[in-house]
Amino acid sequence: MHASRRDAFRPVNELPLAKVYENGNIDILNNNYKKRNNDKVVVDDKFEHKTALLYVYPGMNPEILDYYRKEKYKGIVLAATGLGNVSTMSPKYSLVKKIKELTDNGIAVVIAPQTIYGRVHPYVYSPLRKLSIELNCIFAEDMLPETAYIKLGWVLPQAHNIEEIKEMMLTNYAGEISERTDEKAFLY
């Protein structure tokens, strides 16, 4: 949460689990935490390097997306504004045509929030419904863009089609998606 402070770490969209003191003492603060299992960790290190993360901004040139199609990228995470907004109405800056070219070419497009807190939602506004229903974009709930990028890079080598990609992206494997955000977790 900060570039250099030693107390820079805090959970996002979740209450803290514990407080660790300089003397090594630990106070458990969140009794809702449950260890998933005691299994030995197995590393699955397949990663699709033709995965991109792009932040959407006002006046973004839609032709930027041509690069990723021409270079045969397999997936792109768009860090969108608000609930998942990208330019859809502007004749000059609409990303709709280029996103359609991506998805028509089998490139998974994931919409993640630019914000640290909150989630994207595909059904609140009509342009978001267009992205979700017509363009088959995957809305990444409350995953941070960087988390969605890593997850997409992990999912792509395992999935065989866009339906499997979507199912895996929306499966909560390691707590990367909050079912419901506790309002007290926002800047507690």
Descriptive report:
With 188 residues, this protein is an alpha/beta fold. 23% of the residues lie in helices and 13% in strands. Strands 3-4-5-6 form a four-stranded parallel β-sheet, sandwiched between helices. A two-stranded antiparallel ribbon has the order 1-2.
Rg, nearest Å: 18 Å
Number of helices: 5
Which of globular, elongated, flat, extended, rod-shaped describes the shape? globular
Series of secondary-structure elements, N-terminal to C-terminal: EEEHEHEHEHH
CATH class of the domain at 51-169: Alpha Beta
CATH topology of the domain at 51-169: Rossmann fold
Q: Strand order, main sheet: write it out.
A: 3-4-5-6
Identify low-pLDDT runs. none
Average per-residue pLDDT, rounded, comes to 91
Strand fraction band? 5-15%
**Level of helix content?**
10-25%
Largest sheet: 4 strands, parallel
Decide which structural class fits the backbone.
Answer: alpha/beta
Give the beta-strand count: 6
N/C terminus separation = 13 Å
Second-tier CATH architecture of the domain at 51-169: 3-Layer(aba) Sandwich
